[in-house]
Amino acid sequence: MAAVYTPSSAFLSTPPQKVYSFASPKTPFLGFPVAAAKPSIQARALTLSKPTPNQIHCQGGAVVPKEQKWMFDESNINGPDIWNKTWYPKAADHVNTEKTWYVVDATDKILGRLASTIAIHIRGKNLATYTPSVDMGAFVIVVNAEKVAVSGKKRTQKLYRRHSGKPGGMKVETFDQLQQRIPERIIEHAVRGMLPKGREQHNLDLKKHLINLNALES
C-alpha cells in the first residue's frame, strides 16, 4: 500500500487486489453453502482541517404559548434569548390579560392534595416562565366544595378557630360543623396556608383567583 501526501489532505491509494472466493458443499450444520472472500481495501480521502472550538447553535427560539405572549416584546415573540442573556419579566407586564381559567370538581377529592394543586396554579408555578414577583397565576373555580373528603378521623378531630376580636370571642368548630355551615371556607383555609406569607401574599389576592361556585349561587 502506498500513501501520497499533499499540503491540504492525505490520500491513501492501494494497488488492485484479487478477490478470492470458494464454495463449500452444503453441510448439515449450516444448511447453506459458505462463501468467503479476501477483504479488499478501498482508497478513501482523509481531509485534514483545523480544529474548531465547541459551539452551540440554537436553530430557533422557544415557542411562547398564546396565553403568555403579552409578557414579551414583539422582538422576542418567538421566545426569550436564553443563550446570550438572562430574561426577566418587567414591572409593566403585571397585567391580568389572557390568563387561564380552571374548573375543579372537589367531589371525593382529598383536601390536602386538592389545595396543593390549586395553590400551584394560582401562583403560576406550573409555567416555565414562573417568576415569584410577577402575578402570572391562573383563576380557579371550585364546584361541589361541600363534597370534599378528608382521611382518618379529621371530620371530628380537625378544629377550625376564629376570633371576633372581642374578649371571649374565640369560636371553635369541627370539620363537619364548618362543612355544613360554610363548605367553601375549608378549601380557602387550606389554599391560603399553602401561599406565601410575605409581601407577595398581599399582591396575590386569593379572593380574585379562587372562586367558589357555591358562594356565587347563594
UniProtKB/TrEMBL annotation:
Cellular compartments per GO CC: ribonucleoprotein complex; ribosome
A Pfam family assignment: Ribosomal_L13
Biological process according to GO: translation
Keywords of the record: Ribonucleoprotein, Ribosomal protein
Keyword Ribonucleoprotein annotated: yes
HAMAP family the UniProt entry points to: Ribosomal_uL13
Protein name: 50S ribosomal protein L13, chloroplastic-like
